[in-house]
Amino acid sequence: MKNIKARYLWIAAGVFLLIAIGLIFAVQYAKGFLNSFCLVSLIISFILVTILIQYASFKSFSAKRNIKYDEKEYKTTNDNIEDNLIEKGYKMSNRPFGRSYLLIDNKKAYKVSIIDSSEAYFNDTMDDNYEPNKELDKCKSFVGIEIFNQIDENNYNKLKEFTIQTSNIYYTSVVKEENGNYKCLNYEAPKENHKESYEKLFNDICLEELTVESN
Question: Are 173 and 69 a contacting pair, CB within 8 Å?
């Protein structure tokens, strides 16, 4: 089974499950030797189904873990991103992990989180004074980014799961590198309905995509 693809294992498991269901009915009507044969076959079928599901699940899970994500690197065009956000009209809130900035413009929401403590961020440290902006409920689209100025090694790979895109939401993250640039570990190109808001957000946080030079 080592070289068999996960989908074929799932198919085989489904086939044996159907056989097992058929044998359940057969056992009720078969007698004598035929009844014993159906019963043994039923047991074997269930064992095979269990083994196949285990192998198929393992292969499916392993395949997901080996997904290669697209990465993007950005340089900053302004050393003080937060001052620029204030100038653009974003409202700042202090949070246990750092600061959060929010701008609502024409029923579009833009959110920037500056994370100075990944430990506080991932431990979901409680903030009793924080109140969500009720105006968000009226927004038709939401574009946001988490900017990690600091992150520990154990949580670094979690950022690959931070990019989310739906019909009205685009959310992603970047992490600051030692050279001062920022990297997105899972870049997903914004769909047409998010493109304008995405470009505005990255302009507001003063991040410019670095182009990869081809040899």
Answer: no
